[in-house]
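Predict structure. Input: UPF0225 protein NRB20_30670, 134 residues.
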Amino acid sequence: MHSESPAGADRCPCRSGESFEQCCGPRLDGTRPAPTAETLMRSRYTAFAVGDTAYLLTSWHPRTRPRRLELDPGQRWMFLEILRTQAGGPFDDTGVVEFRAHYRAAGGRSSLHECSRFARVDGAWRYLDGDVEI
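Output follows.
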């Protein structure tokens, strides 16, 4: 884990309402896989928030995964809003999660609005790609 990671009892950065140790913590450390596309989306947001590039790359679909990933150290992720989901449940093979992720950077506050696509690879949810909404 990273020095920026919340303590286990702290609220999870994904704003699920659960503690980090009950929500995204076990996903980031690899002890509990995401059961749905939405939970994978939440854990990926948390990984961005704490700077866990290894988890981001691992949770990326092998067909679309970049070779490496560099995060902007000046960008601070503030909170996540899940706007809608389509499929992506425990018995689905694909799913869509539309979200808005709010952040602060040198230029002030902004947000990223994306419709992300997810697919299962060997039974595990992976981020495939997404369309950024402007």
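The chain has one domain: 25-133.
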